[in-house]
Amino acid sequence: MRIGEIAALVGVTSRAVRHYHHLGLLPEPERLSNGYRVYSVRDAVLLARIRRLSELGLSLDEVRDVLADDAGRELAEVLAELDEDLARQEEQIRARRRRLAELTAGTLPPEGPVSPTLARLLRAMPETDSVVAAKDRELLTLLDVAGGGDEAIYDALHSLIESPDVLALYERLDELADAATDDPRVGPLATDLVVLFSDAVLDAMPEQDGPPLEGIGDAILADLAPAQAEVGRRVMEALVEKQRQRAEKKRDGEGSG
């Protein structure tokens, strides 16, 4: 193969091939009597590997180190690794196309691209003008993007958001927007909210090593009105306590067995 042919085969420019020669990444091939370079299949494989490593974000110095470690390997082994790289690329492309298809079809929620499990949950949430409901959606989206969401929790939350009482509870929360933390409606509302959380949600919740509102919990409550935040605090504490009791009961059952 001539330089133009190997460049076209691998998908780079002839200038890039010459640059790799200059840097010592790609050894100079044999030349014909007329001075033209003649490249072999092994040269093409090496050039393809240089391209692949560069596309993965490695600097040319890092590419040189990787190629040095690969010296002496059989051609079949190098080809197999390149095939694995291409297979991974194909799967990544398919996954991205699936996400684009969802977006084009309008099946994603207004919050934008989120995990498929959360997208199903958001679509199942009832339509409402509730301010607190809107905050819940924003929070779920934030946790999902930040990697703090969990598919098991999303699936378990369906029983909560599909409850016929959920809209009335959101309305009661909205009514506390200007209330004080000692408002008599706070306690009953917190109790009614706790009832909605099924055992499946409790099982999906991560166990708490410290106070239930440490870290992000504090930030969540700070975004609510005082009385609403007090309801949230009581709900979280009650759920953590229920979770602890369930874990103790489970351990006691295992111990007696």
TrEMBL record:
<dbReference type="InterPro" id="IPR047057">
    <property type="entry name" value="MerR_fam"/>
</dbReference>
<dbReference type="InterPro" id="IPR009061">
    <property type="entry name" value="DNA-bd_dom_put_sf"/>
</dbReference>
<feature type="coiled-coil region">
    <location>
        <begin position="72"/>
        <end position="106"/>
    </location>
</feature>
<protein>
    <submittedName>
        <fullName>MerR family transcriptional regulator</fullName>
    </submittedName>
</protein>
<feature type="domain" description="HTH merR-type">
    <location>
        <begin position="1"/>
        <end position="69"/>
    </location>
</feature>
<keyword id="KW-0175">Coiled coil</keyword>
<keyword id="KW-0238">DNA-binding</keyword>
<dbReference type="Pfam" id="PF13411">
    <property type="entry name" value="MerR_1"/>
</dbReference>
<dbReference type="InterPro" id="IPR000551">
    <property type="entry name" value="MerR-type_HTH_dom"/>
</dbReference>
